[in-house]
Amino acid sequence: MQAHQRMLDPTPNGLHSGESPLLQTLGLTKRYGDFLANDSIDIDIWPKEIHALLGENGAGKSTLVKAIYGLIQPSAGEIRWQGQPIVLSGPSEARSRGIGMVFQHFSLFDNLTVAENVALGLDGKESFKDMSARLEQVSKTYGLPLDPRREVWQLSVGERQRIEIVRALMQDPKFLILDEPTAVLTPQEADQLFIVLERLKAEGRAVLYISHKLEEVKRLCDTATILRGGKKVETCNPRLETAASLARMMVGGEIKEVKAPAGRKTTVPRLVVNDLSLAPGEAHGVRLEHISFELKGGEILGIAGVAGNGQDELFAALSGERLSKDPGTVVIEGIAAGHLSITQRRKLGAAFVPEERLGHGTAPRMKLSENALLTGHAASGMVNHGFIDTAATLKTVDRATETFDVRKAKRDPEAASLSGGNLQKFIVGREILRNPAVLVVSQPTWGVDAGAAAVIRQALLDLATAGAAVLVTSQDLDELAEIADRIAVMFHGRLSAPLATSEATREKLGLLMGGSSLEPKEAAHAIGA
Amino acid sequence: MELIEAIILAVLAASTPLLIAATGELVTERSGVLNLGVEGMMIVGAACGFAGAWLTGSILVGAFFGIVAGTLMSLVFALMALGLAVNQVATGLALTILGIGLSGLIGAGFVGERITPAVHLYIPGLTDIPLIGRVLFGEDGFVYFSVALIVGVWWFLYRTRAGLILRACGDNHVSAHALGYPVLRIRTFAVMFGGACAGLAGAYLPLAYTPFFIPGMTAGRGWIALALVVFASWRPGRLVIGAYLFGAVTILQLHAQGWGVGIPSQFMSALPYLATVIVLVLLSRARTGGSTAPAALGTVFVPDR
């Protein structure tokens, strides 16, 4: 197990500030049945270091940090803390030793207050009143303002992350793990986070920073460890690498470049939204307010914005999951459709790909052919006088498999058995094969590996070239820059006027995502503030 | 005057088992577990409670038997719903069916027997005050205990760290687990507390309410206790109001029949449930955000290891 060769540390030991690494894993292995989530991983974390952990989804990043934080027990290997081997019985022991963690999916309690949430992350040795006082003090010191009395459901995503960070900082950790912290932040909020992290580093703490945003890692991190398929590929200095070389190490090969086909022409408006306003359907929902846009055939419109600003509600209003009282608010192919059901909208030529693959995009325990039928029954000839044409459903699966390179164990497996990337290729493929006039797709490549993401983006571009109107909602600004012709931003249920992609700089989009206006006067004010 | 006092006394007596059972279920549900087996745990508590009191002649021992019986029943539920992650609704319903059968078996030998019911408090002077004397100072121990219980539960949930952790498990068990709290162990304790309360509430019926045991004597009170928790929107304060309101409806129903009021008794029996539906509708309309029910209520949790 220990026989493999150890990678060279890019920084010679003499240059590290401490005597020994703060935390080391030696041959750390985690096995789930036959599957090796972590295959003898060695990693050294030094004090005063921001260490990036890079890798695609499924590379084993989360498993590794869960083991370091004591949430799972490694199957083999050793964790050393300040040179001493340790066995962590659970997160509270990790915390008491000085290891803090900020989760990607926040571990917060929506119906409890900020102060109660913070208290739950501490060991409870101080009184609630003292804790609240210290909370305000820590949040002020690090420039992370929080109101301890508010309940979490009332807060924005950025504020929720602040709770997580403050909660971790209140334990005065020597070592802080952050799991994809900027995935949900605007570029400006991310910049503020970097200031906090630089400060932690200056205070002598170590940070393990999980991300797949390579530019960010190059800017912020001193060291990067790259994982692929559960194994460590390399430890390097990200500042000496290029984004492309890091990506190659993550993927283990070149990524196919996405190319916009030549000769794309915009035609008639195929999807028009007129002054759409809609009250939220659930307790924590967002009200859509006066949303208007026009999307022509051959065009891709991108919708950017921090999650939870009404993108889900807009998707539901466009797909017909929620109906509008006024039919004219949503016009598909020239026909007022605001009051029409999902099936009726599909018959008009629209197709929809929701964000959540399992449970919304597909029924997880049903076969792919059955899932093909679920969205294709109205307009794809899979139903014959009320009976299912099984051969036709299987043919749809085969066509999607061939066209979009869906990898699966057998011809017609359950949807849940596919990996995220392959399932997403299947879902997008299923809709594109119906030759839709309008495709509304939400987070097309969220949590999808780089290879599959390239296939999906190319497919969207090809669909637009064939004359369809494509609406893409995404939190990934790079993705929108790559495929969209125009980009609009959603904030608090309102949609900004679309900008041509060539004019939509990160800075402008960031301001819009934070709720500022691009009017010259107000923009200046926003920068001054 | 005498009649009003009698009615108030009857309402208190009818409300007490509802309050005790619902207090236990409130704690269970606040931890995120929906145990629909309250009726089953109550009826077994009633049978065992009567058996204990009849065999030893002590009401206290009877009450203890009821508590133990309810707790054991709830452990069956915890084993299935928490240990084996079986669907909670199905397990709870099965527990009720099991409880009804089991209580018939246990209680079969005791049908027709009588015991001396629990004694009522008597403080010379105070208890003799007209109208309020017997209401405040002339109750049996169960009534005072039920009030202390709900106050204690309120204090526990909102003023102690353990209560905060329990509420956190009910709000989001994934987060609670990620922070290192033993979600299943906490929930098991909450389920056991719920079972103990249900067992005691059941034992109250043959020990204080009527001094004999008959099969099926809980007569749907477990279901009313469940509705009561929803009616109270999982808050201890509202639970007290609800329990006495529902108790009053039960008594009103008896008196209405006695006075020959032309309302079908079935309609009166349905009133608590109708009230629960109306309260739920009003609450969801008045709500500005957040969730009234524990967000993780009734969902299965399997920690990854």
Give structural attributes.
A: 529 residues; alpha/beta; Rossmann fold; 3 domains; seven-stranded mixed beta sheet; six-stranded mixed beta sheet; 17 helices; 33% helix; B: 305 residues; mainly alpha; globular
pLDDT average of chain B, as an integer?
A: 90
The computed structural class of chain A is: alpha/beta
Question: How does the major sheet of chain B shape up?
Answer: none
CATH architecture of the largest domain in chain A: 3-Layer(aba) Sandwich
Average pLDDT metric of chain A: 86
CATH superfamily of the largest domain in chain A: P-loop containing nucleotide triphosphate hydrolases
Treating each run of at least 4 consecutive H or I residues as one helix, how many helices of chain B? 12
Q: CATH topology of the largest domain in chain A, what is it called?
A: Rossmann fold
What Rg of chain A, in angstroms, do the CA atoms define? 25 Å
Radius of gyration of chain B: 19 Å
Helix content of chain B: over 70%
First-to-last CA distance of chain A: 56 Å
Cα shape of chain B: globular
The CATH top-level class label of the largest domain in chain A: Alpha Beta
Number of domains of chain B: 1
Descriptive overview:
The complex is a heterodimer of chains A (529) and B (305). Chain A is an alpha/beta fold and 529 residues long. Chain A folds into three domains: 1-8 and 20-98 and 173-252, Rossmann fold, CATH 3.40.50; 107-171, no CATH class; 269-364 and 436-528, P-loop containing nucleotide triphosphate hydrolases (Rossmann fold). Chain A is 33% helix and 22% strand. Chain A is built from 17 helices and 23 strands. Chain A has helices at 61-68, 91-97, 114-120, 128-141, 157-169, 187-202, 214-220, 243-251, 311-319, 342-347, 368-376, 390-404, 420-432, 450-465, 477-483, 506-513, 520-528, and strands at residues 23-32, 35-45, 50-54, 76-81, 84-86, 99-102, 175-179, 206-210, 223-228, 231-236, 269-278, 288-296, 300-304, 330-332, 335-336, 350-353, 383-384, 387-388, 438-442, 469-473, 486-491, 494-495, 499-500. In chain A, strands 13, 16, 19, 20, 21, 22 and 23 form a seven-stranded mixed sheet that branches. In chain A, strands 6-7-8-3-9-10 form a six-stranded mixed sheet, sandwiched between helices. In chain A, strands 2-1-4-5 form a four-stranded antiparallel sheet, covered by helices on one side. In chain A, α3 (114-120) packs across α4, α11 (368-376) runs parallel beside α13 and α13 (420-432) runs parallel beside α14. The longest helix of chain A has 16 residues, at 187-202. The N and C termini of chain A lie far apart (56 Å). Residues 1-10 and 521-529 of chain A have low confidence and may be disordered. With 305 residues, chain B is mainly α. Chain B has one domain (2-219). Chain B is 71% helix and 0% strand. Chain B has twelve helices and no strands. Chain B has helices at 2-30, 38-56, 59-83, 88-107, 133-137, 141-159, 161-171, 173-178, 183-209, 221-231, 236-258, 265-286. In chain B, α2 runs parallel beside α4 (88-107) and α11 packs antiparallel against α12. Chain B is globular. The mean pLDDT of chain B is 90. Chain A binds chain B through residues 70-73, 90-92, 95, 103, 105-112, 116, 119-121, 124, 128, 151, 153-154, 283-284, and chain B through 161, 164-165, 167-168, 171-172, 174-176, 178-181, 287, 289-291, 294-295, 304-305. Chain A: Keywords: ATP-binding, Nucleotide-binding. Chain A: Residues 1-20 are annotated as: Disordered.
